[in-house]
Amino acid sequence: MVSSRPLPVDPLAEAKRQWLAHGWTEAADGMTVVTSVMRAQQLLLARVDAALKPFGLSFARYEVLRLLGFSRAGRLPLSSVVARLQVHPTTVTSTAERLVRDGLIVREPHPHDGRAAMLALTDAGRDLVDRATAALNADVFADPGLSRADAAELVAIVARMRKAAGDFADPRPQPEPL
To answer: I want to staple 104 with a disulfide (CB 3.0 to 4.6 A). Which of 86, 97, 99, 149 is the partner?
Structure first.
């Protein structure tokens, strides 16, 4: 939650001071990194939630709709949605069930695998996700609260952390287009 007034002292700096005072010097920087990133996530999520609220969407529901909207045919196998969003299959299944209930996507049989399901965007889902994306772009993404240089540096730092954690691998080199 964002307070109505800035606090007179940075609570994360105070937490680091306490860590150091208690002799946890080796962990103090890591604690500060983790809690700083978690607080930044809370602040950004509050802005995202406010932008999506008029559309009746959570960020999880938005992500599924946007991913389907980016696909060539507006449909993807459920397993592809799970892999690309990097969330547990149960989470995507639950989110998809709510989107189906609301008429924003439909579940279709997979054309080649009888055990798999396809998720497909409906016209209502496409309209909603396009309007929600316009709101997110205007209210959050165009100005995330950092300069372009700081934003690029932050993304690079977090990408290195994610890569080191095994979140992704460098893509294979692609030939130059003809």
So the answer is: 99
What is the model's pTM? 0.86
Domains of the chain plus CATH, in order, are: 56-134 (1.10.10.10)
Nearest to 44 by CA among 129, 130, 143, 158: 143
Per-residue pLDDT of 20-63, as tens digits, reads: 999 999 999 999 999 999 999 999 999 999 999 999 999 999 99
Q: What number of other Cβ atoms are within 10 A of residue 128's Cβ?
A: 23
The pairing of beta strand 117-121 with beta strand 75-77:
antiparallel
Closest CA to 109 of 100, 118, 96: 118
Q: Which two tokens stand for residue 17?
A: 């001071």
